[in-house]
Write a structure and sequence with these properties.
Blueprint: H1 8-14, E1 25-28, H2 36-42, E2 46-51, H3 61-76, H4 91-111, E3 116-118, E4 131-137, H5 149-162, E5 163-170, E6 173-174, E7 179-180, H6 184-193, E8 197-202, E9 213-218, H7 241-244
Parallel strand pairs: 1-2, 1-4, 2-3, 4-5
Antiparallel strand pairs: 5-9, 6-7, 8-9
Helix pairs in contact: 1-2, 2-4, 3-4
The structure holds S-adenosylmethionine.
């Protein structure tokens, strides 16, 4: 897995965020090296970010994201590369925005470390219903080839546990092959049994082919959630690619 650095405008499009949504208290999980939280907070939104990488090595995260941007840029300009250039103008703008985002994140986490909490799904260090709206991008479903169904079930329950109102997840595609996460409907049925209704909604954001939908989970009326011990899972086997290689 790699750490990425999406900015405020990307998040707003990926999650269809309205001004009302941005007036609520938000959790960004995983926050990675995204500048979303820093930019949203500058506009008055209450945002907490959580990621396993916000521990001792957090000072290096922006640098690692910039390195990832270089890897990514090489992919973007390969002949025959299959990306959708309707939201971004093209590879140069994409890489510039991602790099600005990583740098803004780096400045913000250094200046305001208390807004960035170390934690890993499927167990996050917050009490039940701590946030109005929980946002989760580019982990669940995206890494469906690496993270098994048990992990997804437990992680989704954990995000639901923390939300007073909604959880929104984007994208619904596995980035390894751009196919929709195969167990999506099973996850939705599982959540429905816990009193969590869900719907798939189109979003404006476009970059990977077919990635123009988010999943919205309605949590306000949820019932008692199953205990995590009752939900089989496997530890997260994902590693950053630049650390592996
Ligand atoms: C591709 S980045 C996405 C970051 C951000 N949402 C964005 O769009 O820029 C994936 C992030 O997931 C984090 N991650 C990996 N395993 C995790 C886990 N078990 N729980 C929460 N986050 C995890 C990684 O550290 C990495 O920062």
């Amino acid at each position: 897995m790699f750490v990425s650095a999406r900015n405020f405008d990307e998040y707003r499009s990926m999650f269809g965020l309205t001004d009302h949504d941005l007036s609520l208290s938000l959790l960004d999980c995983p926050g990675g090296a995204a500048s979303f939280a820093a930019e949203a907070r500058a506009r008055g939104t209450r945002v907490t970010s959580v990621d396993p990488e916000y521990g001792a090595g957090r000072g290096k995260l922006a640098e690692l994201a910039l390195l990832e941007n270089e890897h990514k840029h090489a992919e973007l300009v390969e002949p025959g590369a299959d990306f959708v250039w309707t939201w971004f103008e093209g590879p140069e703008q994409y890489t510039r925005l991602r790099s600005e985002s990583a740098r803004r994140f780096g400045d913000d986490i250094a200046a305001h470390p208390r807004h960035y909490v170390e934690g890993a799904l499927p167990h996050l260090p917050f009490p039940d219903r701590s946030f109005d709206l929980v946002l989760s991008s580019h982990l669940l479903f995206s890494y469906g080839r690496q993270l098994d169904e048990g992990f997804h079930r437990e992680a989704l329950l954990e995000l639901v546990r923390l939300a007073r109102w909604q959880v929104r997840l984007y994208p619904l595609f596995q980035h390894a092959d751009f196919t929709r996460y195969p167990a999506l409907e099973r996850m939705r049925h599982f959540l429905a049994d816990c009193g969590v209704t869900s719907r798939v909604e189109p979003v404006e954001y476009a970059f990977d082919p077919g990635d123009q939908e988010m999943l919205v989970l309605e949590c306000a009326e949820r019932g008692v959630l199953p205990r995590s011990a009752d939900v089989a899972h496997q530890r997260d086997p994902v590693r950053w690619r630049h650390r592996d290689g």
